[in-house]
Amino acid sequence: MALVLSGCGGLTGSGGPTTEDGDPLENAAEFLQQASAEWEESRPTQNVEVSEDAGCFFVLGEDEDVTGELACGGVRTSTAQEGEVWDIGTFEIRPNSDSEMEARLPEGWTAGLERGRTRPEGPVVDADGDEAPDSIDALAAPPMPQTDSGFILSGESLPGDLVQPGDEQVSPGDDGLVMTPGGRVTITSVATLETVPVAGAPTHEEGMEDHLDGDTDDGDIGVSLDGEPHAPADGETFVFVEYDYQPTERPGEDETSTAALALNAGGQQRTLAEFGEDDGWSGPSEQSGSFLASVPEDDAHLVVSSAGRDQVVDLPEGQREADPVTRAYYRDVTQQDTNHEFSIADQPFALDERDYEASMYLSLQSAWLTAYSEVGGADGWAEEDEAWLLLEFDAILDSDDFNPRFKELTPSLTVTDGAGETYSASRTIDIDTRTWNSTYWMAVAMPADVTEVTLSQTFETRVEDWDDNIATLTLETDSSTVDFPQSEPEASDDDSDDPDEDDDADAEADEADDADADADEDSDADDEADEDE
């Protein structure tokens, strides 16, 4: 922008501003009136505080001459700090046809304004040379605009850098992991935001419908870094949550199991994402996402639902709440690949006065502790504070002749935990073969905190020959021990010992203090006696 100035100047005798040559600005009053009108049209009108003395003023230099700088104030936005009520721009000074100096506004000058600045250092004066009132700088902050209660958005439409340096953000780690029968949902990050930039937003129903349908490129969603900062509704806070989902394969879990992530805020629950749907080609796939919501400050949590069971993650900490049914999922060790071969003695038997011998190979391939299973006799979720012990066996049952056929097999499992408690389970496997070679599972309910199991099996089987002669025989294994290490939970600072023990300890300490006092008195008495002698 051009500025034509020369010489020295200041204020005219009548008080109006002058150029460096001392020439008065002939159109000073009209110029400021025009500038104020155009500035008023360009300034924000919502969620602002406007001074009664608002307008545009000349900024003077050290010699009190016009500098070509224009200060328009005061308007304070909701994000401005104290005194940041001025918009600073420039103008041109040129002679008119009568060689008189006039101020002129460049075309589109309001687009180049530096908004939200403090008062310039030099004098800021009107057309008469009077200083702009101090009341302009003392504007109070307007109230921050607020989103609607329950405001929520989810999907790729959210900008990636909503979290600002002053916002609180936590990464829950393992505490944000939620295991389900179909996969693992992880709350990777939770941020509490002071404000969010809102330029317009769809209703929750519209946003969620698009999100769940995969349509997240909705131009109506207007949360962007260019939007106007908004505060949450009264009594609420903004949370920005990031999450992911990974399918898992554990024995006995239903491959068709799905999971859902929902937000429960103020008693109202709304679904945010659904996981585990089979795409028909490669099965369930990994997913990740995020959502932004305005939630009650003390009444909001996430709910992960799967196979009829809800697990809760609190907000804003993002930590999973303890659940007595699912606790086995979160042990330190839940799987052991044992590959242990049992010792089983061969068993003789007779059919129609002919002698045969049965032999069996049995290997424990793996052992699992889990909260949910549908194999080996398990029927879904474990009971509270229990876990399913799942045992995978490879077995071969054979005889020394081709004539006998094994018709039925009943394995009976006995398990003893580290505390000496015994648990049992049995199942019947229908077979009809000369040689049975198969993998099978056994499930037995155990305490969820078990760390050691010793197991053995007894097998009963029926054998027939071609003439329908029947024999029943029993085979027994030796025992095998499997460890499931588990670290002890750290004692919290507020954990206290047995109060009775504390009282006993205090009493003993008091008795010791009394004894010391008595000993000191006796010693003093002896010293006095010695002095008397």
- Judging from the principal axes of the Cα atoms, what is the shape? rod-shaped
| Whole-number tally of structural domains | 3
Beta strands, count: 32
Residues in helices, as a percent range: 10-25%
What would your notes on this structure say?
The protein is mostly beta strands and 533 residues long. The chain folds into three domains: 28-136, no CATH class; 152-321, Immunoglobulin-like (Sandwich); 335-483, Sandwich (Immunoglobulin-like). The chain is 11% helix and 42% strand. Strands 8, 9, 10, 11, 14 and 17 form a six-stranded antiparallel β-sheet that branches. Strand 4 and strand 5 form a beta hairpin.
Compact summary:
The chain has helices spanning 28-42, 204-212, 499-532, and strands spanning 48-60, 66-77, 86-90, 92-95, 101-104, 114-117, 124-125, 152-154, 168-170, 177-179, 183-193, 196-198, 228-230, 236-247, 259-265, 268-275, 287-296, 300-306, 309-314, 335-341, 347-351, 354-370, 372-373, 380-381, 386-399, 405-417, 422-426, 429-433, 436-447, 452-464, 470-476, 480-483. It is mainly beta.
